[in-house]
Specification:
The protein is α/β, with parallel strands linked by helices. It is built from ten helices and seven strands. The chain has a seven-stranded mixed sheet, with helices on both faces. Helix 6 links the parallel strand 4 and strand 5. Helix 3 crosses helix 4, helix 7 crosses helix 10 and helix 9 packs across helix 10. It is globular and about 55 Å long. Bound molecules: S-adenosylmethionine.
């Protein structure tokens, strides 16, 4: 792994340059929506909430539990969950402007007493051991500077019997990509700072969770339920991408490029969307 500071800087730059896009196109959320089987006619906002509901379902969130949002973005997920499930959430991110926006949103919604946000790297938090009842990482683990040390840290700060839910991507083995697919995917990985994607393979990411000590490790492939969300972005990006592709500007218009190329990779099974769940063993 490259130098940690450099990686953090890459993450910060990516989210800074994408701020307007996420706000305008996704309402400030930075994750895909969940479209139940056969149902495409829900709004993106509703689909985002259905994805967030899956966090609560997988973690079996209970009133007053203390939960870590690892990679909290602008607080869309944490405010939704705290409001609906009356839990306490600590949200962390390494992107300073996200903290300000998340805290403002929590305040606006009257949730400041149940949610707090901190500038912190989830792979090295400084929290005391066995602090949290549950941890979730919504499309954030992929940006981890190092998958193994992040899982080690999650394990350390979870209480015995605590639950973990990771909503994130996996990819096929390199050999299954054509050279062209690999080249464009490398650009996307580099520019969106997906530091751990190469450790997140369809079949083997579960082993990393087991090797970190987690039990009851499960993987659910929900690619077909996230595809309608990517398809919407793909539609929006189609015309701009004609110019991006013509002038070879992929690096400079990374979200337009990702909307087109990730959709193509997902349609071919090279890129999947999964929910990973696991538990720290009881004492
Ligand atoms: C795609 S966004 C998802 C944000 C939020 N979970 C959501 O769904 O709206 C990824 C988030 O992970 C955060 N992140 C990336 N690397 C991180 C790290 N090492 N420690 C903490 N947060 C990190 C980013 O700052 C960003 O907030």
């Amino acid at each position: 792994m490259e130098n940690l500071k450099k990686h953090h800087q890459k993450v910060i730059s990516y989210f800074k340059e994408s701020e307007l896009g996420y706000d305008v196109v996704l309402g400030g959320a930075k994750h895909f929506g969940y479209y139940p089987d056969g149902i495409n006619n829900v709004t993106e906002k509703k689909a985002q909430e259905l994805m967030q509901d899956l966090i609560a379902e997988k973690l079996k969130i209970k009133i007053n539990q203390l939960i870590l949002d690892a990679g909290c973005g602008q607080g869309i997920v944490s405010t939704y969950l705290a409001k609906k499930h009356h839990c306490k959430i600590m949200g962390i991110t390494i992107v300073p402007f996200e903290i300000n926006k998340a805290a403002k949103l929590a305040e606006k919604l009257g949730l400041s007493s149940s949610i707090s946000y901190y500038l912190m790297d989830y792979s090295d938090t400084g929290f005391e051991s066995s602090k949290f009842d549950a941890i979730y990482a919504m499309e954030s683990f992929v940006h981890s500077p190092d998958a193994k040390s992040t899982l080690k840290e999650f394990y350390r700060i979870l209480k015995p019997s605590g639950k973990l839910a990771i909503f994130d991507y996996t990819i096929s083995k390199d050999a299954e990509f054509t050279r062209q697919e690999r080249e464009i995917f490398d650009v996307i990985v580099e520019r969106t700072a997906m530091g751990s994607i190469r450790d997140m393979r369809h079949k083997s990411f579960v082993n990393l969770l087991s090797n970190a000590g987690f039990k009851s490790v499960k993987q659910e492939d929900i690619t077909k339920n996230f595809l309608p969300s990517v398809r919407k972005l793909n539609k929006l990006a189609k015309i701009p991408y004609i110019f991006v592709d013509l002038f070879k500007l992929q690096k400079h218009f990374i979200n337009v490029t990702a909307a087109i190329e990730v959709y193509n990779l997902a349609e071919k099974g090279l890129f999947r969307y999964n929910i990973f769940t696991a538990e720290k063993p009881p004492k």
